[in-house]
Amino acid sequence: MARSPALSGEDQWGDTGTGPVLERGRKDDQLRWLAWKPSAGTGGTVPERGRKDELVRAEEERMKKAAVYVIFVTFVAAIGGLIFGFDTAIVAGATRYMKEQFNLNSLQEGWAVSVVLIGCMFGAGLAGPISDRIGRRRFMLVSAILFFASAVGCAVPRNITEFVIFRFIGGLGIGSASILSPLYIAEISPARVRGALVSVNQMAIV
To answer: What is the helix (H) or strand (E) element at residue 37, kind and residue range?
Structure first.
């Protein structure tokens, strides 16, 4: 049996002389020796305890990075819900100015406001099968492009027809995001916090 060069006599062997005495709180060199044991067939020593500690630290670091990534992606994905709620609320304050700008009657005003819901219906219906083919993240990027196009188009329309078209495009983005955002968050989240992270999207809508 290999013995520690730092131990000798009664410090190394017990009173019965049958084996080494592992005492906690000894010197650092004694603890380092106890962390090593002979490696079979190599004639050397392998720092098994040190390796285990390194593996534990590496796993903890990996879990921390994964947690930060999941939280970051959750908040980014929840922006789809934020835009959904924002668009629903902001149009109510814009109807008066829109009616004056384009001389709309009540029917035209209602159509210009509600057409976004028709776009939502088509966007939500297409989001599932298309995202299955091209992936969730890619289709979420498509939704972001639709949001951007709608925002620009609704800001500078020359007539009510252009405004309605861009509102419909925005509805496509809102509908697809309302399906993909919670779905994507649920797919990347650990099971123990999945419900909490998915609810971030619902809070963003509110």
So the answer is: strand 37-38
Asked if 104 contacts 160 with a C-beta cutoff of 8 angstroms, the reply is yes
* Residue located via tokens 């078209």: 165
Q: Which amino acid is at 69?
A: Y
- Count Cβ atoms below 10 Å from residue 29 Cβ, excluding itself: 12
In the chain, the N- to C-terminal Cα span, in Å, equals: 70
Residues 5-22: tens digit of each pLDDT: 444 444 444 444 444 444
- Please indicate, yes or no, whether the overall pTM of this predicted structure exceeds 0.85: no
Measure the CA–CA gap between 170 and 84, rounded to whole angstroms: 9
- Tell me the pLDDT tens digit for each residue of 57-70: 777 777 777 788 88
Q: Rounded CA gap, 117 and 97, in Å? A: 21
